[in-house]
Amino acid sequence: MMSPTTLIRRIAPALACIGLLAIWQVASLVLKNDSFPTAIEAIKAIPDILSDRESLINILASLRRMAMGFGAAVLFSIPLGLLMGRSRAVAAFFNPLLMVIYPVPKAALMPIIMLWLGVGDVTKTLVIFLGVSLPVIYHSFEGAKGVEEKMLWSGAAMGLSPLQRLVRIVLPAALPEILTGCRTGLVLALITMITSEMIARQSGAGNILFNALDMGQYDTVFAMIIVVGAMGICLDAIFERIRARLVRWSEPQFDMPLSFS
Amino acid sequence: MILRLISANVILGLAPIALVIASWQGLVSFGFAPAALLPPPGHVFGRLLQQLVTWTFQLEIAATLIRLFAGFAIAVVLGVSIGIAAAASPAINAAVRPIVRVLAPLPKVALYPALLLLLGFGHGSKVTLVAADALFPILLSTYYGASTVEQKLIWSAMAAGTPRYEILFKVVLPAAMPSILTGCRIGLVISCIVVFLAEMITSTDGLGHALVTAARTFQAVDMFVPLITISLLGLILNALLGAVRSYLLRGFPEA
Amino acid sequence: MKVVPSRSSEWVRPVTPQKPASAIIEIDGVSQVFQTSAHKDHVALSDISLTIDEGAFVSILGPSGCGKSTLLYIVGGFVRPTSGVAKIKGAAIIAPGPDRGPVFQEFALFPWKTVLGNVMYGPRQQGVRAAEADAQSRSLIEMVGLKGYENFYPKELSGGMKQRVALARTLAYHPEVLLMDEPFGALDAHTRTRLQNDLLNIWERDRKTVLFVTHSVDEAVFLSDKVVMMSKSPGRIRHVIDIDLPRPRRRNELLLDPRYQKYVVDIERMFDESDGAGFPA
C-alpha cells in the first residue's frame, strides 16, 4: 500500500515536467514571438520527426555511437581508476596528465580529430570516449582510494593475490562511487554526442537541431529539444534504477542526481 | 625526505606529459604524420606565444572570459541561494527537488538553439547556456553541504542566542562552504568547456570561434592554439579558485 | 506509566516532584516518543519528573539508549517533548536560549573560526562590544588553560583541548545552566580525569547549575551533588541519589574515601539489580 506522500514523491518528477511545459506554454503565449512556438505546437511536431525514416536512422545512429563510446570508456577507465586508487606511483604518474586534459573541451577536439580520421563514426565515437573517460576514472580513483585498508589485509591473509584483491575486494567496495562516475559519464556522453554533431553538422540528432534552425522550422527545433531532453532524463532514470539495484547494500547516498560531479 | 618524495612524484607526474610531447614530436619528425595535419609541438607553442601578444587574439580571449565569468557568476549566485533555500525550507525543497531531478540530467547544450532564438546570437544566449550548465553541480553540492551540516553546530549557535534567520548565514553557509567550493570547482571547469563549445557552434568572436575559423581553412596550427589557450585558462582559473579555497577553508580539516 | 522507585534507603529517596524555593529547572511529566518506522513508536522517555536546584551539580546516569541525552536536549529547547513540560525559572522551555549553555560530546566547534573566534561568538551575539568580548574571551581561554592558543583553528587542537574551547565558548555568554552531554565521552582516560578535575575547579568558583549526562558511575559520583539514575526502554528515572561528599573535592583524597567507594559500588549494584536493563559492561 502506498501512502499519499510516497505517491506524491513518485509522481513529482512527472508533475515537474508538466509544470515546466506549462510555464513554457504561458511564456510563449505571452511573448508572442514567431520563433518561439508553444509547448503544444512543439509536442505536436514530435511524431513527425520520429516517423521520418531519415531522422530516425540519424537518431539511432547517434545512440549507437554513444553506447559504443560510453562502453569503451567504462571498460578502459574503471581498471585505470582502480589501479590509480591503489598505487601511489600509478596515481602520481597519471594525475598531472589528467589534470591538464580535464579543462579541455572534448567536443572541441572534433575538428582536429576530423582532420585526421575523417567525419566517420570513429571520430565521433572517439570524442564521446574522451568525454566519458575522465569522470569515470576520477570516481573509480576516489572509490578505490577510500577502500578500507584492513579489508585488503583480511583478503591478503585469506591468500588472495593482488589481482584477486583488486577484482574481488576493491571493485565491489568502490562500486557505489564508480557507478556515480558512470552516471555522470552517461549524461556527459549524451552531451558530447549532441555537441559534436552540432559542430560537425553532418548527421545525427545534433545536426537535425541546427538544420531545422537554419531552415526556420522552429517547432521542429523545439520538438527535437524535447526529444533530446527526454533521452537524457530516461537514460539517467534507467541507469539510476540499475545503480540502486547493484549497490543495495550501500547506504542511500543522495537522492538528487549529481550530474557532472 | 618528504621533499625528496614530493620531487620524485613531480618527476613521475611530468613524465607522461613529456612523453606525450615527445611522441607528438616523434610522429612529425619521423614522418608518420604530415605537418599539415599535425604541426610539431615547438611550432604550436611558438605560434601560441606569438598570438598571445596580438591585440586581436587578446580580444578573443576577453570575449570568452566575459561570457565565462558572467555565466559562472550567475550560476554561483543562483546555485548557492537555491541550494541553501532547499536545505532550509521543506516547502522549497518539495518544489525544487523534482524540478532539479528533471533538469539536471537534461543535456543543456540541446537548449542552445532555443536560447539563440530567444536571446539572439550575442552574449546573452552563451552566458545563459554557461549558467544553465554550471548551475546544477553548484546547486547540488550546496544543497548536499547545507543539508548535512552537523545539527549540534546549529544548536550551539542557537543556544548562544542566534536567531533562526541568522543561523543560515552564520552557521549553515560557512559550514557548507567546503561542499559549495567543490561544486564551484566543477562548475568552473564546465563553464570553460561550455563557453568554448557555444562559441564553436555559432559565434563571431571568442576562442571557440577562432578554432572554427582555423578549421574552415585547414590551418592545423591555428586550431591547436585556441584549444591550448582555453585549457591554460581552465588550469589558471582552477588554481586561483584553489587558492581562494585554501584561504576560505583554512580552519577546516583536509581542506 | 508511572515512576515507581523500587527501594529506598537513607540516601535513596522516592521521586516526588517537590518544589523547593530555589528550583531553577522543573521537568514535569515529560515523555518523548520517536517514530522509528511507519507504524512503530519508540518510547525514549516516559513520564519524567525532576527538579533541579539552583547551583546544584546534577548528573543523569544511565545505559546508552535510555534517553538521557534526549532529556538534556529537551531542557536545552532543541527538542520538543511529545508530552509534559520542562520549565526554567517557572517559564516553559520552547526554544534554545543563552540562559542554557550546551557542551556536546562532539565539541561542535565552528571549524571556520579560531579558538578566540569561537569563544567570542556568544558575547558578540549578545551584543557585547568587540573589544570587550575580546578581553573577556581571552581571560576565559586562559582560565580553561589554553593561553597561547587563541589564534589556532579547532583542527589544530587535540580532543581535550577542543572540549576546553567548547566549555569556554559556552561559559562566555554566561548561561545560568550548563547542559553537558557526555562531554568527556570521546576523550582518553587520562585526558578525561584531567578535564574532570579542571571542570570541578572552575565550577567550584561560581557554582553554576550543571546538568551533566554521563554513563560513567565514577564520573557521576565524583562530580555531582545529586545523581539521577535512569533505566532504558522506556527511559525512566529509577533513583535519585544525593551524593553527600565534602567539597572542594580532590581526586586523590576522594578515591580513598570509603564513602565515595560505597556510592560507586551501591550504584553499580542497583543497576545490576534493576529490571534487566543492565548497565553496559
UniProtKB/TrEMBL annotation, chain A:
Cited SUPFAM superfamilies: MetI-like (SSF161098)
UniProt keyword terms in alphabetical order: Cell membrane, Membrane, Transmembrane, Transmembrane helix, Transport
Membrane-topology annotation of the record: Multi-pass membrane protein
Residues of the ABC transmembrane type-1 domain: 59-239
Ranges annotated as spanning the membrane: 66-85, 97-119, 220-239
GO cellular component: plasma membrane
Sections of the chain in a coiled coil: none
A Pfam family matched in the record: BPD_transp_1
CDD domains: TM_PBP2
GO terms, biological process: transmembrane transport
Keyword Repeat: no
UniProt subcellular location: Cell membrane
Listed InterPro entries: MetI-like, MetI-like_sf
Family: Belongs to the binding-protein-dependent transport system permease family.
Protein name: NitT/TauT family transport system permease protein
TrEMBL record, chain B:
Membrane topology, record value: Multi-pass membrane protein
Domain (ABC transmembrane type-1): residue spans on this chain: 61-241
Alphabetized PROSITE patterns for the sequence: ABC_TM1
Transmembrane segments: 12-37, 57-87, 99-121, 127-146, 167-198, 218-241
Predominant location category: membrane
Domain of life: Bacteria
Subcellular compartments: Cell membrane
GO cellular component terms listed in the entry, alphabetical order: plasma membrane
Cell membrane keyword on record: yes
GO BP: any one term: transmembrane transport
Keywords: Cell membrane, Membrane, Transmembrane, Transmembrane helix, Transport
Record-stated family: Belongs to the binding-protein-dependent transport system permease family.
Official protein name in the record: NitT/TauT family transport system permease protein
Originating species: Bradyrhizobium sacchari
Automatic annotation (TrEMBL), chain C:
Gene3D superfamilies with a match to the protein in the record: P-loop containing nucleotide triphosphate hydrolases
Family listed: Belongs to the ABC transporter superfamily.
Organism: Bradyrhizobium sacchari
Molecular function GO terms recorded: ATP binding; ATP hydrolysis activity
Domain annotation ABC transporter: ranges: 25-257
Swiss-Prot/TrEMBL keywords: ATP-binding, Nucleotide-binding, Transport
Function: Involved in beta-(1-->2)glucan export. Transmembrane domains (TMD) form a pore in the inner membrane and the ATP-binding domain (NBD) is responsible for energy generation.
InterPro entries for this protein: AAA+_ATPase, ABC_transporter-like_ATP-bd, ABC_transporter-like_CS, ABC_transporter_ATP-bind, P-loop_NTPase
Name of the protein in its database record: NitT/TauT family transport system ATP-binding protein
Signal sequence bounds: none
Lineage: Bacteria, Pseudomonadati, Pseudomonadota, Alphaproteobacteria, Hyphomicrobiales
